[in-house]
Amino acid sequence: MAKKKSVTRARATGKSAKADAAAVDAVRGDVELRLELLHSMLLQRRFEEKSAEAYALGKIGGFCHLYIGQEAVSTGTISLLRPDDYVITTYRDHGHALARGMSPRGIMAELFGRADGVAGGKGGSMHLFDRNLNFLGGHGIVGAHVPIATGVGFAIKYRGGDQVCLCFMGESVVNTGAFHEALNMASLWHLPVIYVIENNRYGMGTALERASSIHDIYERAASYDMARAMVDGQDVFAVREAFSEALTRARTEQLPTLLEIRTYRFMGHSMSDAVSGTYRTKAELDEHVKRDPIVLLRAMMQEAGEIDDAAMAKMDEEIKAVVQDSWDFADQSPEPPLEALYEDVLVDTTSDAREEATV
Ligand SMILES: Cc1ncc(C[n+]2csc(CCOP(=O)(O)OP(=O)(O)O)c2C)c(N)n1
Ligand SMILES: [Mg+2]
Fold it and tell me: What is the pLDDT of residues 25-66, one digit of tens each?
């Protein structure tokens, strides 16, 4: 308990240990790692540009929320996880799924509503799942998955593991009751959960300042005596640095953290929303686009002589081919059969099914 308090106080007063050279190296990594980070973000970007195209052609139906502009958050955090850690997120989930290594084919087929999709074509854009990657969704109800993340943290601790659960959410979630109940329990029971708020400043068309009584929302964690930090979400290294501190805290001390990662979405709330001109001005959007996380990393690497235009173009072409392949795959995949409508609705709790599930 004493240990936990000191962590919290350190965060609150900004006196956390200054990262030494080794820690900086771990955050920035070598050229190979930086290329991987760039690749991860560019894959998300190209995949979603193609999704927007497919949506416009009517190949994708229903809701579809793009993540464009926020890629440094998914890549910066997930790049530090182990395969046995858990990830859970909202409906704006394509970027997280790709960063976690989910197959572009399986995701695109899910967006197209086809049988080869990761949820059998019945979940769609908002409900990407992959049990093998410990990727627990894709959730449509604002805030509803936060208590699930706390439950996963409890399960990890109960089983004596050292995994962590990474829970993404938008900033609107902090005004739901579920958020407070879940964070209170995680702090009280010392659970290894890292709650990441992707503060893109808007919940649909409502600016944070119009909906929240405090604007430095990471301070909400003070109510639960929980470690917290605010992070520049356009800088993938800043995200990695803050996340690696939280990760150590969760892995070695089983303590939760709340990170407010400030970012911006470059597209509308969903495909049916205007990009700008209604609740935000084009001038505001343009200002934020200048800090495109992919452009920032690429510029840094180009300046350091780590990547040139030819290598960049090659990476882009390769990624575009992967994305086109996912489109072709999705297009050829059949629609789920009518009978599948009744599958996966209720859990089979018969003893046979239970035995099968534990094997
Ligand atoms: C409980 C609930 N209320 C309302 C909605 C409708 N809704 C969908 S997204 C959204 C805004 C959420 O904004 P934020 O948490 O900031 O995430 P972002 O979309 O910016 O990623 C709302 C109100 C919902 N899905 N669930
Ligand atoms: Mg938001």
Answer: 778 889 999 999 999 999 999 999 999 999 999 999 999 999
How many C-beta atoms surround the C-beta of residue 119 within 10 A? Answer: 21
Ligand 1 geometric centre to CA of 93 (Å)? 13
Q: Which of 204, 210, 267, 280 to mutate to test the pocket of ligand 1 (most atoms within 8 A of CB)?
A: 204
At 290-347, the pLDDT tens digits run 999 999 999 999 999 999 999 999 999 999 999 999 999 999 999 999 999 899 888 8
Cα 98 from Cα 137, distance rounded (Å): 12
Q: Name the residue with the closest Cα to ligand 1, atom 7.
A: 142
CATH H-level superfamily of 2-11+18-358: Thiamin diphosphate (ThDP)-binding fold, Pyr/PP domains (3.40.50.970)
Question: Between β-strands 86-88 and 227-232, what pairing exists: parallel, antiparallel or unpaired?
Answer: unpaired
How large is the greatest C-alpha to C-alpha distance in the chain, in angstroms? 62
Residue 76: name the closest of 227, 338, 262 by CA: 262
Residue boundaries of the structural domains of the chain: 2-11+18-358
Answering whether pTM is above 0.90, one says: yes
Q: Which of 232, 171, 224, 225 is nearest to 196 (CA)?
A: 171
